[in-house]
Amino acid sequence: METLTGKQGNLVFFNRLGQSLIRVYVKPKDPKTSAQILQRSSFRFINKLWRYMPSDPFLNIWKLQSSLHYPVNNFIKSNFIVQNPELDFNNIILTAGELEEVNAITFIKYSAAAKRASFEWSVSTSGNGQASDQILLTLIDFANYRPTDNLYNLDFYIDTSNIRSNAIGAIDTNEPCNCSTLWGFVSTFTSPIIQQSDISYSKNSSVTVL
Fold first, then answer.
1. pTM to 2 decimals?
2. Which residues contact 140 (CB under 8 A, 6 or more apart)?
3. Distance of CA 150 to the CA centre of its chain
4. Cα distance between residue 122 and residue 191, in whole Å
5. Angle subtended by helix axes 71-79 and 55-63, to nearest 10
6. Residue 1 has pLDDT above 60, yes or no
7. In angstroms, rounded to a whole number, what is the distance separating the alpha carbons of residues 174 and 125?
8. Where are the beta strands (DSSP E) in 17-150?
């Protein structure tokens, strides 16, 4: 005898543990409250960040957070805050670890003419940080992340050519950008990154005009 499955009228036929069962179909509720919309957009934003992040070095960094989960799950778990609207980078963590982070970002300034973002950070340390720690600079351009236009593109630029004691660094972009759609991050690391003590939590800052 053929087992009946699927929906017919207001009834749903299905199998569970070898038994044929029937239930009344209940249309899922989707009231789209402001809280639900915010939660969905926040989750979408975090997922898009992961999608556009360069796998080198971020994939390896987020592998270190937990061997029980995929790197993307570690990243989402560390960053998903329901109250965060899209493009609110203040609470975003691009890297996470036990190395001492930079004490402060002095500034991140951008020159459209030079197509360059200039970073300056504090070199002071009070923990396990060293003057020779390498610096990971990350610049995100979100000019093409426009949910109202169904557009969700993010451009990532990274640089690893500086050390903590340099205090300054720069990232060149492919074309002139608007500083109002840029956000920068500074992390410290030691190479190779094989354990959590080899990478720090990231600091972030908005970008101003040079």
1. 0.84
2. 89, 154, 155, 156, 157, 182, 183, 184, 185
3. 19
4. 21
5. 80
6. no
7. 34
8. 19-24, 105-111, 116-121, 134-141, 145-146
- Considering just the CA atoms, what is the radius of gyration of the chain in Å? 23
As given in the structure block, the two tokens for residue 150 are 């169904």
Residue 120, strand partner residues: 107, 168
Q: End-to-end distance of the chain based on CA atoms, in angstroms?
A: 76
Instruction: Let me know: does 26 contact 36? Beta carbons within 8 Å.
Output: no
Please report the domains of the chain, with CATH numbers, ordered by start residue: 34-209 (2.60.40.10)
Tokens of 149: 């236009």
CA dist 40 and 34 (Å) reads 10
Which one-letter amino acid corresponds to residue 192?
P
Q: 């109250």: which residue's tokens?
A: 83
CA atoms within 13 A on the CB side of 66: 11
pLDDT, tens digit (0-9, with 9 covering 90-100), for 79-115: 988 778 899 999 999 999 999 999 999 999 999 999 9
What confidence tens digit (pLDDT) does each residue in 29-62 have?
666 677 777 788 999 999 999 999 999 999 999 9
Short-list 175, 93, 86, 165, CA closest to 125: 165
Closest CA to 178 of 96, 115, 99, 126: 115
Instruction: State the maximum Cα–Cα separation within the chain, in Å, rounded to a whole number.
Output: 77
